[in-house]
Amino acid sequence: MSEARVQRLLGLLEEQGLDALLVTGRQNVRYITGFSGSNGVAVLRRDTSALVTDGRYKEQAAREAPSWETDIYTRDITDEIRARLADSTSVGIEDSSSIAFQSRLATALPDVELKPTSGMVEQLRALKEPGEIEAIRAAVESAAKAWETLLPMIQPGVTERQLAAALDYRMMSAGADKPAFDTVVASGPNAAMPHAKATDRPLAEGDLIVIDFGALKDGYCCDVTRTVALGEISKRAVEVLGAVRSSWDAGFASIAPGVAAAHADLAARGQLERLGFGEEFVHSLGHGLGLEVHEKPTLSKLSKETLEPGMVFTIEPGIYIEGEMGARHEETVLLTTDGCEILTKGINL
Amino acid sequence: MSEARVQRLLGLLEEQGLDALLVTGRQNVRYITGFSGSNGVAVLRRDTSALVTDGRYKEQAAREAPSWETDIYTRDITDEIRARLADSTSVGIEDSSSIAFQSRLATALPDVELKPTSGMVEQLRALKEPGEIEAIRAAVESAAKAWETLLPMIQPGVTERQLAAALDYRMMSAGADKPAFDTVVASGPNAAMPHAKATDRPLAEGDLIVIDFGALKDGYCCDVTRTVALGEISKRAVEVLGAVRSSWDAGFASIAPGVAAAHADLAARGQLERLGFGEEFVHSLGHGLGLEVHEKPTLSKLSKETLEPGMVFTIEPGIYIEGEMGARHEETVLLTTDGCEILTKGINL
Description:
- The structure is a homodimer.
- Chain A has helices at about 1-15, 25-35, 60-65, 75-85, 100-110, 120-125, 130-150, 160-175, 235-255, 260-275; strands spanning about 20-25, 40-45, 50-55, 70-75, 90-95, 115, 180, 185, 210-215, 215, 220, 225-230, 285-290, 295-300, 310-315, 320, 325-330, 330-335, 340.
- The first copy, chain A, is α+β, with helices and mostly antiparallel strands.
- Chain A has two domains: about 1-125, Creatinase/prolidase N-terminal domain (Creatine Amidinohydrolase, Chain A, domain 1, 3-Layer(aba) Sandwich); about 130-340, Alpha-Beta Complex (Creatine Amidinohydrolase).
- In chain A, the strands form six sheets. A six-stranded mixed sheet of chain A has the order 4-3-2-1-5-6, with helices on both faces. A three-stranded antiparallel sheet of chain A has the order 7-10-11. A three-stranded antiparallel sheet of chain A has the order 8-9-12, with helices on one face.
- Chain A is elongated and about 70 Å long.
- The mean pLDDT of chain A is about 95.
């Protein structure tokens, strides 16, 4: 698997006239080498590639990236990178790398031309392989099991924090490595913040409660949001829930292979605008996910990407009314040649 | 609080001949503005400073950074930054920023000279204010409460993953916002990896179990490691535990205001070398912590920093024997003018 990815990447390198590529993004390194540690750089070359890391990860690198030569540095990672690139002239460096790292490399390799590259590995990662889709399904399964047992707990008096802690614990107990991101439990007026943190606010009758969660398992994420209505809710809240739902449906219906990502955003947004909630939808429609919870493609009105079979992404319109309430509906979906499969469908209210 | 920090930073700006500074590091932005969202840039100027973020964070920015003017961008963050910097000539940009961001800024601001700056905010963050130390103490309290109830659970047959999930849940139940980092529960041969992930391995009689955990509360971290001996352990394991402990003592004893961070590392390392475990201590002695779990100072043999009163950092020597076992002892300590206080002392075996 790693070998096929490396070959595709080497092809892109050649197209861009590069002798080598420095892969620095943590999940990019993982994608092409298998190594999941927090400190590693993959030096990719047509002849011999290498993974450079430090002594803490010696055993882990050998286990996770057995087909890669591994260099352990002791003083500075640029020492080992220099040794690997001594005879290169034109080397790509991921433009997500820091300015500081680029500057240290420039000092270590005065005769090498460093060329920032944009999204090369990310472009490969956007199209999921069957094994990756299975990994996402496994993450969904942990999230679904946790959700099922959580539902009876959603009662007046229980705090947002208690609910978030229980959900995280149950995902891990159901096989997740950890939550894929900070679990959002935002109730009543707190739900007006799309990225609210769980607070000590107790749930109350009449609340809309936005619960945005996902599991991370074997490196892969899922991401789902449910808005729970607690007891009897206002007419306005019913209207908000219905609008979000119909916006989701409009977004979903617009998606097919070859459709512009921006088109999907506009389809969902247009529906909210028609219902008078255009101003209250303050973020984009969705995002790809996989090794990271936000990756390519971006489903926003400014996106220039095209949706293709093999992409996994979220559809998540929301309405946020300051000081009052909020609602969001989110599913993780897989686009295939036949259409769109809702991977998180089993997570039911 | 934010105002005093801004004034100190403006002083550093003037020293470096900069008209303005772009603060991009998430925790740096939080430190000087109070805003804790995932997408924000602080544009710091002597006259009017501003926080730039997107629509998802409008309400949160107003609440968390009430004294800051906030600009919400819709298309590209560089649009708003340009508007704030139109009349500047020399602007600092944190060198932890990405190459891509620097390049977009250079395009947006062709007449401005962008100068990478290194560790300006981090330098302020290294010296903790009383309120920050209280926040770290509160994080320790959550971790301590969780640990206390966890001890009876450490039994043969319980898996690493179960233990990690329970510890995370109990920290959150005790008031933590979340774990400060991925909780390590590494037993038997797994403990030979300093950054092992919790696996499905069941604990067994005779194991050394390295448990490295910390709570994050109101933005601040703590970090502690305990090595638990399960039942009767080998003579070799006893020796390893003792060596780690004496190395910790040697490191701790070496620390005082004005001591070089490298000296502390060498003191602990020297002790392990004398005991024949020099090669098995594969990482540095410790790291500062606060808003991040790794920040200044770095206690390594290559560090050029000096330990000063007000710094909070870990002391954490370890021994890692591939395929066999591992042990580590770690405390979070506060250096004062009087000496060193062990903040995590209450987390007992």
